[in-house]
Amino acid sequence: MKKSALLFMMLLMGISSVLYAQKIKTINPRPGHKLVFKIDYAQDKIVYLAIHYREKLLLKDSARNDGRGVYIFDGENKLEEGLYTVVSENKKPYCNFIIDGEQHFTYFIDTIGDVRNFRVENSPQNTEMLKFQRRTVKAQKDVKLYQDKLKEFENGNKDSLEFYTQKMKNVNTEMEEFIKNMIAENPTFLFSKLQKSYQFINVPDPPVLPNGTIDSTFQSIYYRTHYWDNFDLTDRRFLFLPSLEPKMKDYFTKILWMYEPDTINKYVDMVLAKTEPDSMMYMFFVEWLSYQFESSKIIGHDAVFVHIAKENQLKGKCKWLNEDMIGKYERRVKSLEPLLIGKKAVELIMPDTTLTTDFTKWHSSYNFQKPYVVMWFYDPTCHTCQEESEKMKHVYDSLETIGKRNFDVYAVGSDTDLERWKRYVREKKYPWINVGGNTANIDYIETYNIIGNPTMFIIDNTTKEIILNRRIEMVGIPSFLDQYEKIKEAKSKLQPK
């Protein structure tokens, strides 16, 4: 064999060995973890290792000072990958860092927090994170300098003002470019994914419709649809990064919060579909969303909770739930679903205070003339019920006086002492229909899910549909009905003829 060919083969074998070794190292990182922190000037007897979870820090481990300011966290098991913080014994954070697949590295820091003096060995991700932190500190100092200059020239030289204003803009542009390049060069790094998740969504200009007008809904729909583009929701490590939950709150409790349930349901399904089935991320989203909408005080959000439960918990997708928990969801959906806004109210027929068998003294919740019916369930011994009933009477009488009362009241007393209830109604002289007693055409407590008094429903008397299924301030009834009529009219105009 010629010498050149032999040399080529030896080089090829050497390169292959290196690549193979690198491949082995990548696929099989060292077992367990060993994180060494050398903290200059540290007097702490002990420091703590905490992971970012949701918007909190969870304690994971502690390490003692070896007498030289060295603290070692080690163990046989891998740590959860995510963003961590080393915290002093006085609860002061010393530094943030990433724990990824390779969990054996040494970090040199100090108690001052000057990242220019920090150094890390054997952790490419944290090396990149340090570059970012140093660049951020420099940018902050430059901005502070230019802000001071702007104050100095705010009443003076216009050219200087423009000069330093442009300098501040340049700092921002350069920082954005630095982050963009960092993400592009190391797209698989967890720190890169964290920075990407903070990036704004670029929304295109709205298109022109065939009739020549601008599509006014395009940008808002685009933003809602592409909001999660910078998140990898199949990556469970986002649960241990600080960007996820604030983004969730912004999306579901601000951007979508006031939309109608059908619209919210659409985007809830869209986001859940971005997670992997039966994953920790899916579990987190389902549990978080269920709680947000079940406990929400916004009218109509109970329908979102029912949708989430029917499409997830009750379809067997939530493997972590036991039979008792699934049963609770089933019962909750069963009680809420018939009373959602838009559902037809069940007719309730009960006797009034005469409590005779004469059918003419029985009253139906369907038998009213006004456009709307307020169904008011109360207990005359309940202090809140008494106060709210008086407030409703004031609203009722005020509107009646000016000829603008557009609702009737169907008040259901739930006192077991019938004589006390009758006496209460007669003393108060309420001008609306008052029914009660132990006899009715249905079990209204179960049908209307009366868990506690007072309880309120408002029914559209034309369609018999529920338009409000929770108690609101009595003074707000007229404005609620006025707003409902405006929405109803707007919807009717959108219906195809």
Give a quick set of tags describing it.
497 residues; four-stranded mixed β-sheet; five-stranded mixed β-sheet; single chain; Immunoglobulin-like; alpha+beta; 44% helix; disordered N terminus; 4 domains
Descriptive notes:
The structure is a single chain. The protein has 497 residues and is of the alpha+beta class. The protein has 4 domains: 33-122, Sandwich (Immunoglobulin-like); 130-197; 231-339, no CATH class; 349-494, Glutaredoxin (3-Layer(aba) Sandwich), CATH 3.40.30. The chain has helices at residues 3-27, 124-153, 158-185, 190-197, 218-226, 244-255, 261-273, 280-294, 301-311, 323-336, 383-401, 418-428, 444-447, 477-494; strands at residues 33-40, 46-53, 56-64, 70-75, 82-87, 93-99, 104-110, 119-121, 349-351, 362-364, 372-378, 407-413, 433-436, 455-460, 465-468. The strands form 4 sheets. It has a 5-stranded mixed beta sheet. A hairpin with an 8-residue loop joins strand 7 and strand 8. The radius of gyration is 33 Å and the shape is elongated.
